[in-house]
Amino acid sequence: MMAHSEALLVLENFIAGKFVPCSSYIDSYNPSTGDVYCRVPDSGKEEVEAAVKAAKAAFPIWSSKSPLERSQILNKLADLIERDLEAFAQAESKDQGKTIMFARTVDIPRAVYNFRFFASSILHHTTECTEMASVGCVHYTSRAPVGVAGLISPWNLPLYLLTWKIAPAIACGNTVVAKPSEMTSVTAWMMCKLLEKAGVPHGVVNVVFGTGAKAGEALVCHPDVPLISFTGSTLTAQRITEKSAPHCKRLSLELGGKNPAIVFDDADLSQCIPTTLRSSFANQGEICLCTSRIFVQRGIYSEFLKRFVSEAKKWKVGNPSDPTVDVGALISKEHLEKVRSYVKKAQAEGARVLCGEGVDSLALPTGNQKGYFMLPTVIAEVKDESCCMQEEIFGPVTCVVAFDTEDEVIERANGVKYGLAATVWSSNVGRVHRVARRLQSGLVWTNCWLIRDLNLPFGGMKASGIGREGAKDSYEFFTEVKTITIKH
Ligand code: NAD
């Protein structure tokens, strides 16, 4: 496994403004070749302790800076990441398996925008004030940063989701200890190299790399970290909730989904089909907001299926660094096997696999034969109670089923434990509003997908999460409010 050790990229933790080696390391794979190409620190309690200490020490100075000073630093950091956009995109694609086009047009631009957005929004918050003239009092609220924020992020949109946490946390005046996914740590490490130049004081942003069980849990259990912002699976969130309970920590949990698309018979299929293909297969289906259950009204079911499958077959799977490729590699061998196993289970239950896994053959370039690739897969006639319709698959697999009435489809769409995102396709405005309001889902897109205004709340219901993030919501999460009464 270590035959190519001389060529390996070796990451170091970033603590108190310095890169610090670790005593042990984890192998990190290039998903498109199956080779180990990077070594990631296997941090534990000791490294987390040092990072929290640095963040605590930096807090008094950083929290006392004006929002404008912090905003200027965030903007500088955004400029520096943007300057290096291509290098970040290449690194993200290699580390995660995503296509270079997706990294170039979605991941890295959004990471840049996260810093710009919170650099701006932090300047515009106001607090509340009320007056009780009869007793000669005014009341007002004041908001202050909480302290050291623990930020834990997943592997699917590595820098995008990490910066979605770092930017608001530090804009509000907190200092942070971040732990990216052990499978995708490279772009976080690259960002650390830019912090000093951007003017981020030492200790304001600390990054410890390592596994969830060791580094993540040490952060969650640390008594000097009063707040944890976590994005990842529902299972891990349950563990984090348990572990942080003795400390009564403030938690923001952005979790998995089993997102429905509802296609009524008056939908504009020329818009719906390409968008639903994207919502099913973009980033290999590894986005928490991806569609994985498509409910199509019976009158257009056959036509939809025919057109959808024929278009899905056109998606090109292959080397992520080829700009003409639409689907890159899945994150790991284990994950690929897990996603494949769902297709097998569906077949065993009598569902029909219309294209992709097990049906079509996948020709890969010579250098990618050992990569973790899978064709976009469409399954029809899956029962609502099947695990394929109930569990998050998180890969390029989508299920298509027919429905008859509005009431029926709402009940079926809501019939899962998750409630993150939904799409509704119809040209009837009244119906679109009615259905959107009745869906148990933190986000509903009608006649579109993934168009976001970062000012508005983002987050899920039910097992998809607790709390919301966005301009005002992140501000409220990353600050502590106090009500002050003045008698005159
Ligand atoms: P995961 O839960 O396995 O890991 C997420 C992060 O938590 C990683 O950094 C991991 O090391 C860490 N972790 C694992 N165990 C931990 C523990 N015991 N204590 C502390 N930290 C721990 O999730 P993943 O497989 O990396 O990501 C995929 C999941 O993330 C999917 O379920 C997906 O839907 C979800 N997700 C949700 C959103 C959202 O905004 N709702 C966005 C992206 C991904």
Automatic annotation (TrEMBL):
<protein>
    <recommendedName>
        <fullName>2-aminomuconic semialdehyde dehydrogenase</fullName>
        <ecNumber>1.2.1.32</ecNumber>
    </recommendedName>
</protein>
<feature type="domain" description="Aldehyde dehydrogenase">
    <location>
        <begin position="24"/>
        <end position="484"/>
    </location>
</feature>
<dbReference type="GO" id="GO:0001758">
    <property type="term" value="F:retinal dehydrogenase (NAD+) activity"/>
</dbReference>
<comment type="function">
    <text>Catalyzes the NAD-dependent oxidation of 2-aminomuconic semialdehyde of the kynurenine metabolic pathway in L-tryptophan degradation.</text>
</comment>
<dbReference type="GO" id="GO:0042573">
    <property type="term" value="P:retinoic acid metabolic process"/>
</dbReference>
<comment type="similarity">
    <text>Belongs to the aldehyde dehydrogenase family.</text>
</comment>
<dbReference type="InterPro" id="IPR015590">
    <property type="entry name" value="Aldehyde_DH_dom"/>
</dbReference>
<feature type="active site">
    <location>
        <position position="254"/>
    </location>
</feature>
<dbReference type="InterPro" id="IPR016161">
    <property type="entry name" value="Ald_DH/histidinol_DH"/>
</dbReference>
<dbReference type="Pfam" id="PF00171">
    <property type="entry name" value="Aldedh"/>
</dbReference>
<dbReference type="InterPro" id="IPR016160">
    <property type="entry name" value="Ald_DH_CS_CYS"/>
</dbReference>
<dbReference type="InterPro" id="IPR029510">
    <property type="entry name" value="Ald_DH_CS_GLU"/>
</dbReference>
<keyword id="KW-0520">NAD</keyword>
<comment type="pathway">
    <text>Amino-acid degradation; L-kynurenine degradation.</text>
</comment>
<keyword id="KW-0560">Oxidoreductase</keyword>
<dbReference type="InterPro" id="IPR016162">
    <property type="entry name" value="Ald_DH_N"/>
</dbReference>
<dbReference type="GO" id="GO:0047102">
    <property type="term" value="F:aminomuconate-semialdehyde dehydrogenase activity"/>
</dbReference>
<dbReference type="GO" id="GO:0005737">
    <property type="term" value="C:cytoplasm"/>
</dbReference>
<keyword id="KW-0963">Cytoplasm</keyword>
<dbReference type="InterPro" id="IPR016163">
    <property type="entry name" value="Ald_DH_C"/>
</dbReference>
